[in-house]
Amino acid sequence: MRDYKGFHVVRSEENTGTSGTEKKGSFKLQIAKHRLVVGIRILAVAAVIILIVWLLVTQYRNQIYTDMTVSSSSEKISLENNSYLSNNGSVITYSRDGISGTDGTGKVLWNLTYEMQKPIVHQTDGIVAVCDYNGHIIYMIGQGGKVTEIDTNLPIHDFSVSKEERIAVILEDSSNSWVNLYDAGGAKIVEIKATMTKTGYPLAVALSGEVMGVSYFYVDGDSMRNSVTFYNFGGIGENTSDHIVSSYDYADAVVPILGFMNSETAFALADNRLMFFTGSKKPVSSSDTLINENIVGAYYGDTGIGLIFYDTSGENKYRLDLYDTSGKKQMSYAFDIDFKDILIHRGQIFIYNEDQCIVLDSNGKEKYSGFFDNKVLNISTTDSNKRYIAVTRTSIETIDFE
Amino acid sequence: MSSVNLTLIIGIILIAIGIRAGFGIGLTKGLSHLIALIVTVVTLFLILMIRSSIHYGHIRSGIVYIVTLVILGAVYGVVKLILKSAHKVSELPILHQLDKLAGIAVGIMWVAIIYMVVIALAHRGLFGSFGEMVVKDVHDSTILTYINAYNIMMPKTR
After folding, report:
1. Which of A15, A231, A254, A338 has the most CB atoms at less than 10 Å from its CB?
2. Taking Cα atoms as reference points, which of B106, B88, B145 lies closest to residue B26?
């Protein structure tokens, strides 16, 4: 065993000559100082991180494109004498003889042949439906190109397709109108008889999930009125009369356009007002804006609706007023080009004609303005704000912004 | 374009401080801190993008961001492990000095990041007259303009 004789515990008073209380106080001070330094360091690093993230996000949102390039192009094909519809990530090409979906490289994803005099095409999230105006057959092309044929037996006036592969149709016979709903298999699941005296004349229909919106026009005494009615064919609608979950009447208005911007937001556009409705199960009126000018055109996407007016200031030809999904006017942008179409997608606005395009952000800031290399017949959006699919007269091109 | 101005002088002083700090902390430790900062920034950015994708119903984009976030987490885990081992090795004689010398590069990188943030904030008008001076100095100096061309946080102009 070791001998520890001669060793003893050195007390603080002996070692430093300072008292225990003073020493304790000094330690406390040192700990406080250390904590302060660590705290300041953490705050500084957090501030730097927040600043960098803020800069990157604003940079990403306010990015300006300096160049537009064609990253891929299909082999030369004749694309004239067709009509086109923008479909996120692909292009829908249709004519009186058939319809097809094509990706950005020109690869045909699906096609269908038919004979129609005046084909009408609608699409939602990749689900495409086509019918002949006043015809009675609707072809619904689902994911993967699966085709469902629906025979309505009555002339089709208008229809809407949802991503759940349901179709709402306005039909007409000699005395009445009908609003029918068909499921993914083509079976009729709802039939609403519409008369001028009871419901009004159905002008437009929109569908999203379990909810169907119908714009009914009717005459009350000597005034014309329009109602926008929402039906729910799920659990919520079962407890309400005729599955109607909400209905709004508008005096001296005609509502020919009704749509869902996303599953939560519907809008209705009359000749003199713009209305928004919020709710995926029971849409309720969230905004109602009166419009005192003549509307030249209306374009909507997932993040907003753009109304086109003639620019009354005389400096430019047109003016675009953009409303967000809450119905708030986000911006006004005046421009001169004779546009062919306007795409509103992921908070970005793409105005174009055959020769040139303008890209804006949702605040009206010009991100790009320039000319196409080839004459463009149609532009389709993709999942990226920097990439679009262009149909030219001879090929399908993928264009990228840098 | 003149070559020397106040912003450039401040930049040079900051680089000197960065070199000193980088030498003191060493490569492995400095790199570990730097990577942690970058991963935090990218993570926050991805979270904001996921939130935005869900808000607009862009499910595909949301999934891509989530997968990227998961991959980032996995890669960071591996990198952290490697750096921890490398730090232990760097404590050996000779390697310790090499580690300290290589740490200078990390110190300069830290200064570069702070420089980029300050310039980008100045361009957004956040520092008032001081910011205006910085923007002018960057525009007037060939070296600063060249360096700033690589600043990913700078707003682009056509």
Report:
1. A231
2. B106
Domain membership of residue B157 (yes or no) is no
Would you state the pLDDT for residue A218? Answer: 92
**CB pair distance less than 8 Å for A59 and B155:** yes
* B48 falls within a domain: yes
Tell me if B153 is assigned to some domain. Answer: no
Name residues 69-108 of chain B within 8 A of A (Cβ). none
Overall domain count for chain B: 1
pLDDT reported for residue A191: 93
User: Which domain range does residue B73 map to?
Assistant: 6-148
Q: Residues A64-75: pLDDT tens digits?
A: 898 999 988 887
Whether the per-residue pLDDT at B43 is higher than 80: the answer is yes
Cα angle A368-A391-A101, degrees, rounded to a multiple of 5 = 125
A111 interfacial to chain B (CB closer than 8 Å): no
Of A189-193, B21-25, B137-141, the least confident: B137-141
pTM attached to this predicted model: 0.74
Nearest-CA distance from B120 to chain A in Å? 7
- With helix as H, strand as E and coil as C, how does chain A read? CCCCCCCCCCCHHHHHCCCHHHHHHHHHHHHHHHHHHHHHHHHHHHHHHHHHHHHHHHHHHCCCCCCEEEEEECCCCCCCCCEEEEECCEEEEECCCEEEEECCCCCEEEEEECCCCCEEEEEECCEEEEEECCCCEEEEECHHHCEEEEECCCCEEEEEECCCCCEEEEEECCCCEEEEEECCCCCEEEEEEECCCCCCEEEEEEEECCEEEEEEEEEECCEEEEEEEEEECCHHHHCCHHHEEEEEEEECCCCCEEEEEECCEEEEECCCEEEEEECCCCCEEEEEEECCCCCCEEEECCCEEEEEEECCCCCCCEEEEEEECCCCEEEEEEECCCCCEEEEECCEEEEECCCEEEEEECCCCEEEEEECCCCEEEEEECCCCCEEEEEECCCEEEEEEC
Residue B1 maps to a domain = no
Nearest to B45 among A53, A64, A347 (CB): A53
